[in-house]
Specification:
Structural class: alpha/beta
Number of domains: 2
Oligomer: single chain
Largest sheet: 10 strands, mixed
Low-confidence stretches: 1-11, 13-52, 748-762
Helix content: 40-55%
Number of strands: 10
Distance between the termini: 9 Å
Number of helices: 27
Length: about 750
């Protein structure tokens, strides 16, 4: 029997492993869903129990829409620009249910503390549908609130419009709603608006009248004044069915600035040192942007707004979400963070007070510039990346056939194929390293940005490829694979430990305007990190095994698997990663140790997976609230009960992505084909992979673990299609490079004789 077969599971055993672990992690997905309405109800109850901690400083919240930092300048918008002096500035990720947020979406997010929408249509319909106007309050009631509540009930984000107003009223806080949007924000579940309602009239607020109304409310002792300053709609970017406004974008922004200036004057003249928070909570059209935000005065938890805004929900300096506004209002008005329990957002705070006003503005402008520059580049990059790899695989299939090329040409063909494969493997890490260079500042058009980011990525591809092919590890056939895998995992691990700066607004990274995740490891990053670590593990374990150190090889798998779990689950704040990492590395450890795969051992791995995830999540939950990640908040929401909505949203999102285009439809078939090739290496008449398995027995064990890793990652994550796609784009080229090196190395063109293999492997 060939020595490598001692390290491989029997085909039926492999099937049992895949089926059972898939079922287990699917159950984890059900148990790990985030509850929705129960958490919102908890927040309401907590808010009504904190009257004794009422804050002494009034709050004026000015909401607008469609104002980004590119609209702001000292000459055109002096009031908005001036808030950087002596205050804190930031950007708002306004993403709601749909790609672009309408003004109603933003006000409903303030009302409910969750993503919500005023549109009953589908995503496809929303692209062309006009944003609905917000009706003014009539006789103290918001007339469309029943419709908003019905739309939210059919959604999957668990929004319950009508949270904020009753929470403030229940805490004994006096409120005033100035304008239609403010009426939505402070309405209760029945649509009745808490506190005073001031209607600006059909033409909207004249700046002087608005300033007088705010001053009157503050003088009367109102503690929370919410102001609708109007929304900016970009005539050049509107949905097809929406009529263009009479005023230009610049004129609309100037009117908003004048209204903010009037509010600033009223706040400056008021007693009690009010907090002023100005936020753009909707997009100006179909294209999502990071929006304007600024604040002055007292901040939640003590101190003052000075520097750059942020929140613990984003953990990104200068970025907050619309869902952070409700917790901010509750924390400021009620004087306690207990009022925000169960909400998905967090109070808006400030950091970097030592930064100059110019540096603050430069930072927030850079955030939006990078977010805008990367958006049009991601789809063509992904398509080009996938198609170029398909070309690589086709060329490799031809080049690796035994009779192709002749004795003189073949060595050079194999050498170039190996180098090109390493180049492809170096691309993912290079897309993140490229963000160490501010390429988004190069020019102002998509063409300039494309050239700049391509040059930045190519620079780091060249560096990583040179190190992989010229370093001391080049002597081992798996050395370049292990090096590039290590580099990929290390770049992501260091970045996630230092604030996720490189993955933000990168080609395979986190997109702030999508507002899905702002820190940690998203699905593509998890796949690349876990696969990179797995490739390193295979290279190390294979080296140890071939030198007769089976125990050390097994120990290396265990240690690196535990390290990967800790980085992904703790630093990466990734709930869906450990359920895939632990079974994959556990199975690999069994195979490397030469232990037979049985149902009992599979159950032990599954139980260990559940226990490890529970321990990580509970440990995070026990930390202070400010330090908790997604995992700790998962425990909090799980205790409130209810899970089906998030499971439904994850499943529908995966299905929607799968059938969204011809490109995504073929991904499952491509993944199945790759898995078939890995398990049937000689099926295409190319013996290089089988020879690699024979010479380096851990490689096939690693291939089995890879399929488990990517398969489970697909099942338990929303947008899970990205997991096998990203993982394969790193693993397959590097495996190809290793196979090519085996053919290049003298004496390794055929399977070794039994006497050539160390006794510890047989």
């Amino acid at each position: 029997m060939p020595p490598s077969r001692r390290l491989l599971p029997h085909p039926s055993a492999t099937a049992r492993v895949l089926a059972l672990l898939g079922a287990v992690v699917a159950l984890l997905g059900l148990l790990g869903a985030t509850p929705a309405r129960a958490a919102t109800q908890t927040a309401t109850r907590a808010a009504t129990q904190t009257a004794s901690g009422l804050a002494t400083h009034p709050l004026v919240l000015v909401g607008t829409g469609g104002v980004s930092w590119s609209d702001v300048s000292a000459s055109a918008t002096p009031a908005l620009a001036g808030m950087a002096d002596g205050g804190a500035v930031g950007t708002v990720a306004v993403r709601s249910v749909f790609t672009a947020a309408c003004p109603g979406d933003g006000w409903l997010a303030l009302s409910s503390g969750r993503r919500a929408t005023d549109s009953a249509g589908t995503s496809a319909e929303h692209v062309n549908a006009p944003c609905a106007p917000i009706a003014p309050v009539r006789d103290g009631v918001q007339p469309d609130f029943a419709a908003y509540t019905a739309i939210a009930a059919r959604g999957t984000y668990g929004a319950t419009p009508g949270l904020l107003g009753p929470a403030l009223a229940g805490g004994g806080v006096s409120t005033a709603a100035l304008g239609p949007g403010a009426g939505v924000a402070l309405a209760g579940p029945d649509g009745r608006v808490a506190g005073t309602v001031v209607d600006p009239g059909g033409a909207g607020w004249e700046p002087a009248a608005l300033g007088a109304a705010v001053a009157e409310q503050l003088a009367a002792g109102t503690m929370v004044v919410v102001v609708d300053a109007g929304a900016v709609r970009d005539p050049a970017d509107l949905p097809r069915e929406e009529a263009a406004p009479a005023a230009s974008r610049a004129e609309q922004v100037a009117l908003v600035d004048a209204r903010v200036a009037a509010v600033q004057a009223a706040v400056a003249a008021a007693a009690g040192d009010p907090t002023l928070l100005v936020a753009s909570i909707a997009d100006a059209g179909r294209t999502p942007h990071l929006q304007f935000a600024a604040a002055t005065g007292p901040a939640p938890g003590g101190g003052r707004y000075d520097g750059l805004l942020g929140s613990r929900s984003t953990r990104q300096t200068g970025i907050l979400q619309t869902t952070d506004l409700a917790p901010t209002v509750l924390a400021l008005a009620l004087g306690s963070d207990t009022a925000t329990a169960g909400l998905v957002g967090a109070p808006v705070t400030a950091t970097d007070a030592d930064a100059s006003a110019a540096d603050r503005v430069g930072k927030v402008r850079d955030l939006d510039l990078a977010a805008q520059a990367i958006q049009p580049l991601v789809p063509p990059f992904v398509v080009a990346w996938v198609l170029s790899q398909i070309v690589l695989f086709v060329v490799a299939t031809i080049a690796l056939r035994r009779a192709w090329g002749g004795t003189h040409v073949r060595p050079r063909v194999l050498a170039w194929l190996r180098r090109v494969a390493v180049v492809f493997g170096a691309v993912p890490a290079s897309t993140y390293l490229a963000n160490t260079i501010p390429w988004w500042r190069a020019g102002s058009g998509t063409g300039s940005h494309l050239l700049a980011v391509t040059a930045a990525v190519a620079l780091f591809v060249a560096v990583l490829t040179a190190l992989a092919l010229l370093g001391p590890w080049r002597q081992h056939p798996l050395g370049p694979m292990g090096f590039v895998g290590t580099a990929t995992a290390l770049v992501l691990a260091v970045d996630v430990a230092t604030g996720s700066r490189l993955v933000t607004s990168s080609l395979i990274g986190l997109q702030p305007v999508v507002a899905g995740r702002f820190y940690g490891l998203g699905n593509p990053q998890f796949a690349l990190f876990a696969v990179g670590t797995l490739l390193l593990t295979v290279a190390v374990a294979d080296r140890l095994l071939l030198t007769g150190h089976r125990r050390a090889a097994t120990a290396s798998v265990v240690v690196l698997g535990l390290a990967a779990t800790a980085v992904d689950g703790v630093l990466g704040s990734d709930f869906g990663g450990p359920p895939a990492i632990i079974p994959a590395f556990g199975l690999l450890a069994l195979l490397v140790a030469g232990v037979r795969v049985t149902w009992q051992r599979v159950l032990v791995i599954a139980a260990g997976t559940v226990l490890a995830i529970a321990l990580i999540a509970v440990a995070d939950w026990l930390r202070p609230t400010d330090d908790q990640t997604h995992l700790g908040r998962f425990v909090t929401t799980l205790l409130d009960g209810g899970a089906w909505q998030v499971v439904e949203r994850k499943a529908s999102q995966n299905l929607r992505i799968l059938v969204g285009s011809w490109f995504t439809v073929v991904l499952p078939f491509a993944a199945a084909f790759i898995g078939w090739v890995l398990m049937r290496p000689s099926a295409l008449g190319v013996s290089a992979l089988q020879r690699t398995y024979d010479r380096h027995p851990v490689v096939k064990s690693g291939a089995v673990a890879l399929l488990v890793l990517l398969g489970i990652g697909f099942v338990v994550n929303d947008s899970g299609t990205a997991v096998p796609a990203a993982g394969a784009m790193l693993a397959v080229p590097l495996l190809l490079a290793a196979c090519t090196r085996v053919l290049e190395t003298p004496g390794e063109a055929a399977a070794p004789a039994a006497g050539d293999v160390p006794a510890g492997v047989r």
